[in-house]
Queue: 4 jobs
Job 1
Amino acid sequence: MQPGEGFTLAGSRGLMGRAMAEDAFEAVVAAHHAEIRRYLLRVTARASDADDLSQETFLRAFRAYRGLAPDANVRAWLFAIATNVGRNHFRAKGRRRRAYEAAALEMAADAPDRADGRLLAGETWDRMERVIGALPTKQRLAFIMRKMHELDYTEIGASLACSEESARAHVFQALRKVRRGLDGHLPVETESRS
Amino acid sequence: MSPLHPVCRVIEPDLLSVAAGEAGSTATARVQAHVADCGPCREELAQYRALEGMMQTLRRAPRGDDDATLARAQLASRLADLRSRMVSFGIFPSPLGRILIGRSEQGVALVQYLPASGGLPDHVRRLLGEDAVEDRAATEALQAELTEYLEGRRARLDWPLDLRRMRSGFQRRVLEATAALPYGAVTSYAGIAARIGSPAAVRPVAQALRWNPLPIVIPCHRVIGSSGALTGYAGRHVDLKQRLLAVEGVRAVPARDDFRIDRTAMYTMMTGDQEYCVPTCGSLPSQPLSKLTLFGTRERAEAAGFAPCTVCRPDLHPLPA
């Protein structure tokens, strides 16, 4: 063997064999990456954080993928990983405060787009995002999972390592706080619909 | 503000569920009955419904920064990198004790001797990296070939190798030169140093071989001390070196804490020549081991592509067995 030729010799008999599992994971990325990034964007309010944390989520998922049961709910599983990644992120000192400030700014800038014809004052959206951003981490995560991504309480409980009841309690606590934070700003119809 | 009446407090969770559209028929009926008579709760329900409406808008509305294209591309490249580095390993019994074989997408990355029992030693864990996964099936074919090799039934392990665990370019050159030593041949650490063009780097060569991530496959057992002493192997397992060499037809006899190869009982050639000799041929007895390659048997020398010397004719005058 000549130096520089490397060691790779002919006849790699059966050494490669993981191609199928890898294709399956490609499909997981294709199906869920955009939504997981959107979730993390809502959680962190920063595109750069959402980029980094969504990558970390999928790298972790890839490492664990071969151990995942074939009938597992992949979307809920990814939300659980993303939630953990997000919580670790917020545990880092100081980040959370910065994220809130950024949230307020970015949301304010986005508000007219997102009013989506409902002609709500940008100030109301701004206020809503700030109230959501100020929720305790678990409540905020539970709230975003439920209200923005429509996960059920069992899935949210699995993400937050708590019971379904606790997950519901987190969401309801968040709802009360958001509702209180928006007192006088909600576009209430004059006649109750019920 | 929240309704304060105890009845309103009890019904409030149901009210939230109704606003969110999550309530069952019983809870819905209860809430409807309650808000029909309770103005504050009717208002509260309207407020929560308005909030749900806002959140629905928010859920559907595009965000300016909701562009996953860049993150997706970066993810693809990091996944490709992770995949190619990720090691699958199996742990097997072998004639030389417990052995771990690890392979990546690129090839065999790791062969390590393990203690008879217990978990993985720290240096093995470091070599495996945090992404390693135990997967016997992925390494079983390799294990079968390795066993044949260790039992002397196979002289080659034609495995694609993943050399990214090399510590340096120097180590890589040392291991490449070592990998070029034929089956059944030995030379000295100084001999490897000479082959890579760094004749003074004898100790660095020994260090590089000490950290060989692929012993047996990259045959560092074929590299010995200049005196003929086997010198060291796999920590304190010079006995394994002796056994590996014995399988290849190289005899080493016990000498104090070590084993020693008798140069005068080995077929000998100047490294780089094409002919092998008896050890007494010409100037060979006065040459340092670093310039020589030794074979235990003629068969091994010839299998490596060398011809008998036309002067000393080892084919006609073989060494005593």
Note: The CA atoms of residues 54 and 60 of chain B lie 10 Å apart.
Job 2
Amino acid sequence: MLAVIVITALSLVFGIGLGLAALRLKVEGDPLVEKIDAILPQTQCGQCGYPGCRPYAEAISSGEADINQCPPGGYVGVVALADLLGRDPKPLANGGDAQSDVPPELVAVIDEQTCIGCTKCIQACPVDAIVGAARHKHTVIDAYCTGCKLCLEPICPVPGCIEMVEPELTVERWRPPLPREVARV
Amino acid sequence: MKRRLWSFPGGVRLAGFKELSNREAVVPFPVPSTIVLPLGQHAGQPAEPLVEVGERVLCGQLIARPAALVSAPVHASTSGTVVAIEERPVVHRSGIPQRCIIIESDGLDEWGPMDTAGEDPWRTPAKQLVERIRDAGIVGMGGAVFPSAVKLAPAKPVDTLIINGVECEPYITCDDLLMRSRPEAVLRGARLLLELTGARRCRVAVEDNKPEAARALEQALAEVLRQDGAADMEVVQVPTRFPAGGEKQLIRVLTGREVPSGGLPFQVGVVCVNVGTVAAIHDALFQGRPLISRIVTVTGDAVSAPRNYEMRLGTPIREVLDRVLRDDARDMRVHIGGPMMGFELLDTRAPVAKGTNCLLVRAQPAETRPAEAMPCIRCGACVDVCPVRLMPQQLYWHARAGELDKAREHHLFDCIECGCCAHVCPSRIPLVQYYQFAKHEVRAAERRAHKAELARARNEQRQARIERQKAEKAKRRGRGKPKRDEGADAGGDEAAA
């Protein structure tokens, strides 16, 4: 009899404790989605088939999408996702060199001579990196451009108006090359 | 009584080659006809130009103002006309051109008004003095080119001021000659900095391979203290061992204190300033003269008469070479700074800048090409000489394999790039280049992460705005305003946004 009372009392105490803990320490949202989203490059380019990085992160988390659908993240990104999720890395599904590093950073540049001011690229830009108004020249704020290519043709109706270029090399951006070693191990 | 000194771990003894250039007195180098003043001669943001093309400027005139807290102004180093503001080659490892103000000299070398001269610096509050040091464009002249005003306004009071006249790199003698020729400028500047920083004692450190400089300072010290008031100031000779002139190493030698990893000297109560910087501060505060020239050592076996010159900032290095090279010098290489921590100059059109302490010009005969690197044999020689007590061989493996987080775990960013490890490496591995590569890669990754964070935030804001607009539209429809239907051009208000 005593044993029954003790066990019941204990289970009540722990039950209340756990219940309170669940209320107090509640985690908002899905932490796994946050972690996946943190690895994704945030270009918001949609090359994965989802409308942005976060939707893709949600799809990976729910098991709907695979981890190798993000070309801007490169193979490095696939490996990071594989690490996080405890899976085997696999080559990129949609284009890109299978084992390559992160692809070069590019930014869009609008040729202001050919721009007709149609605002189509402004609506397409996922990070509001293009400024301009209807029938006025548009321009790209390169500090915000993620290089997603969503503003290129066919969104832009004028051929050759928007191009992807490598940003200008500055002293701050410069990186010394890996020393060339002649002798091999 | 001999002062107690501590010692730093590792280090190497190097042949000095200082006698090449330290026998002749400093002479002024002729003012060139064209002066090229880079806007980024200092650590931090490049300065913003204040003059326009075609404007006439006077010597010492402010021509570019600091763009941020960590930045420095630029002054015209002779009188003349601004002929261009454009990108030109500068003294930098990368060889990337930078924006410069180009002045065509009028040959008059006419000084502008010196508005700060005449004020008594001894009665000026410290805050104002720091302001004037900043306005004079003074940066660390030992090579780090960090704006001195930032350093002299430490976040925490300090008790020790160290004046760094160690100059431990081989070949360089500009600080040696400065201490010999103008010891009172160094000491008076130091005496004033003692007041300014509120430090209790001042130690002027000189490596014991420069007895003339130490003697000159000692002789001048009594006179300076008599004139400007007694203080705890002392000239200390430190043992010659590279890199004793490294800031953290010198603090260790003089005080026994260790600057924490990733920390700054003020955290252990020390401010450390190079002798050239102190002399520049002296000139700015006592004479109202901004930083427009510096002493540069021109040495090496391709130079006919190695010596030190007082050069105007902005003097194209090619013009210096035209004057000093030996007639038979061909196929030479120009090093900026010393052989340990300096770098090769890629374009001799680059001008002398605030941090250019030495032009080391060496003939490069065909047979002495750099030896090929051999595999690391894990001998550990680099560990023994590292003055920061890192494990250079581990850093090398991680940097080479691109394992940046592991390199950081091994304190990559505490490496001062002194080159001791590469100097003793029996396999001649260019170790420092690997560390530089890894540091830049880490910073690039941080930049990428920062940009991704920005893109995420901007995308979220955009989503929220689209949602809001949709909701507003739905509300309008709900209230029965059929004129504004879905066909309204969303582009219009987005473009306006």
Note: The domain at 295-366 of chain B is CATH 3.10.20 (Ubiquitin-like (UB roll)).
Job 3
Amino acid sequence: MARAERMAPARLAAFALVGVGALLLVSPFYFTFVFASHTRSAIFDTPPPLWFGSAALANYGMLIERLPFWRNFGMSVYVAVMTTALNLLLCSMGGYAFAIYEFRFKKPLFAMVLASMMLPAFLNMIPSFMVMQFLGWIDQPRALYVPGAAGALGIFLMRQYIASGIPRELIDAARMDGCGEFRIFWSVVLPLAGPALGTLGLITFINSWNNFIAPLVVMRSAENYTLPLALRSMQSPNNTEWGTLMVGSAIAMLPLLVAFFFCARRLVAGLTAGAVRG
Amino acid sequence: MTSTRSRPRIRARDIAPYLFIAPFFVLFLVFGVFPLGFSFWLSLHQWEPAAGLAAMRWVGLDNYAFALTDPWFHRSLWNTLWFVVVSGVPQHLVALPLAYFIQSRLKRTRNLVVGAYFIPYITSSVAIALIFATLYSKDYGVINAALQAIGLQGAGQGIDWLGDAAYTKPAVAFVVFWRYLGWNVVLYLSALQVIDTDLYEAATLDGAGLWTQFWHITLPLLRPMIFFAVTLTLIGNLQLFEEPFILVDAEKGVAPSVMTSAIFMYRLAFSDGDFGTASAVSWILFLIIALLTWVNGKMFQREGDSHGAR
């Protein structure tokens, strides 16, 4: 007890520092929402507004006038949902094969999966643009969700989970009962992989939702832009409508903030799962 | 052995695993391996995409020679390395003690605090850049207003964060730091969680304070994670693109001071249409990343030997 009291001031200072740091870290989000409710001129008042204003609706009106905003939103949703659904299916298939089966070249093949994670993304920027051009996929949403439909990280995550979390006896029993190989995967393994699928789904959705470089390179027409690209297209060197942009940013951030609020623990655990074991 | 069976039967379970992993490898071949090979081939050619594939002209290593002697490329490399150090090093110097503090001192508020530090990581870089562009504004920005409020800056002497070359780099570096701090905290927390608490208890009984414990127990045990996290930061920052690209408009006079090598490569290809040189730049950058990652690994290894660990 005496010891705890002696350390009190230093501890208090440390708590305060960490708390203030956390507040500073979230403050830009606060200002996004505050500015979203102010006109352009009010944002650039001295001192800048610290509390909510009344221009949110006007800003919103200008947003949907300037951008096909909800179409862009829909495009983001469509691409993110397709990416996530494909990854959940294909990564759990791959992870399952690497976790349970014994087959020739299993080790080198898995090493290739891991090695592919090490390749820097920009190395692929130019050539994958050319592949898209060759396939005629420029300005097509599929250019955004097909290439990453079976991510290496997802295969790794699912392999780790299935290898340690699903009893082999269950799979053998299903096989004895005459289940086909795909049926075993679909009706025995998938239902038991729920937690890992949840984590993988969240990670994939977030990454797709925030992806900027891929759409920057392949999307051409404003109505096919995903949200990050659409928002950036409203920015101009001189007279950017900041209030309007903040409304757009706020709406774009909201789905992830809500998802994060409900799933923070799982997400954080899932993101670091590979790291801990590696 | 095979004679016990009349003929080798191909069972479904022998083929199934190959079918299960086929999607990854098909996609990897089409959108990973092939483009990489093509990119290398392209880097040995001069080519303008508008002219069609037939217009490719073999130039050998000329693109590499051109890039390596181009002052703009040198500048972009310098900028990139500057960002690696100035936004990368503080991430770890702050994240490590912070994670230690959260792990050892926070109980009920733990998830809330970790969540607060982690949110920037899961937010769109575009949204982040847009909000910081307003916060950094010269005459009306919240950051200058705050500095004036606490007396660090006189009224009307606001810093032009994103327009004055002396401040633009640090301003961009801060956004990168802000965005990835929480990610590193989470990485370190995940490693701290698996440290045996008995070690701390024994040390406390021996009279070791918080700082001594951190220095002599935590830090050595965290070495593998520090290596992992630093490697991720190194690889990530060497490819830095989005934050400087969105925060500082290409038209602005200060744009060259935050032009990273990835931005340089992007502009070469998509603004200048010089795909050959851009490909050469991407391979040079790849070699630099590989080299620095290797050096980083060697350094961690050597340090480990001198401590007699492992």
Note: The beta strands of chain B are 45-46, 57-58.
Job 4
Amino acid sequence: MKYEKRYDGREFEELRPMEAKVGVVKNAIGSAMFKIGKTVAIAAVYGPNDLFPKFLQYPDKARLRCHYNMMAFSGAGDRVRPGTSRRSKEISMVTEKALLPALDLQDFPKAVIDVHIELIQTDAGTRCAGICAASLALADAGLEMKDLVAAISGGLVGQTPVVDLDKQEEDFPNGAVDIPIAVLPRTGELTLLQLDGEITKEQLKITLEFAKKGCDKIYEVQRAALRAKYEEAKK
Amino acid sequence: MIAKSYVESLATKGTRIDGRKFEEYRDISIEYGISSKSAEGSARVKIGDTEVVAGVKLDLGNPYSDRPDEGTIMVNVELIPMASPLFESGPPSINAIELSRVTDRGIRECGAIDFKKLCLRKGEKVWMVFIDIYAINADGNLFDACTLAAMAALRDARFPTVEEGDVIDYKKRTDTPLPISRLPLACTVWKLKDKFLVDPLVDEELASSARLSISFTEDDEVCSMQKGGDGTLTLEEIQTMVELAHTSTKNLRGNFK
């Protein structure tokens, strides 16, 4: 079965409508909401704080800790069991690795910076939405950064290369391939790369380039959200 | 720190701690049935001094509600303190969780097991395949070793007898193997300075800035990838790593008869 037209009528390279806003959690030093299609992620940054137990401290820089969580009601099907799972722990870790290359944490030796990511509503692409929100929240916190981090899934739906798969596409009857990536948009370097599904080397190359282009569009939305905060402040 | 600069200086000179080429694996051995009286399938894999054992246990259970006619698999990797001074007891570390999940995906995503053939009665009873992997001695490259061990143990497994009322008689094993249709194999490529190498020793792993685990099926398709490490990768570098992993997994296939 060929996938000739996307379920929601998008072009194959088209991302779902996006919305981004910073400063959504007042208590945090930085926060942001990132919405793509029906997937909604919020991220809040706390710190730098003292890190205990002491053996967790890095002598020369702060530690970045990410906490990814799907809210119990956030899945379209069954209730998500609250608390951490192997999946959420792995996603927290790859999120940390995706964000680290953008940060300069040497100003805060021995400290910790915590990034809390919560998914309120999900329709696939949650780790990418979480990374987009988290990088905005870190920028909102005023931490020194080389760049924002933009993340999106590329993939195949029934052999057709697409960007930003939704849940219905991920569950395509003849199989789908999901390749979440994160990019430092200014240099084009990848900081996250995972893949599930079967794909040839040639298709992989095309799909990665597709997804990388998608990240540039996200970058625009992210930058606009940061700018909007300061325009608001001027008023 | 000393080990890191040593490994880096060797890499610049085009060599490694044990004198191997960058794309060269250590000797690999696979032994089957290492727990044949208890596990339904088992195997031991050695890559140089790295050793892991894997066992498969089968049980009957309820299917997931969204896949009523499919069996299930679960992969669990334990990094026990026996295997390395760097491992500690307690709940699974994030490294163990990542290893478990990457190994799981490599097998699951290409349909290495025909899950529909693990169904006894739709919506009621399916086979659950538990693959448990333990590191015995960790001397680098656990990613590739775990996938090798899991696939070897799966190929070694035979169904037990099912009596009336879905009671399993583990003592009476049948000759029926698991419905395994594919053979995904993983190769992890490590970026050390500007070099790419496979099958690292622990010191080489610690000196690397990024890694990319890539699984290939026998039809030369990529079936899972996972980037790790704090460093970044460009699209060109990824291309190089995919090619290197492809060649390596082709060679790894020689270890399976």
Note: The first strand of chain B starts at residue 28 and ends at 32.
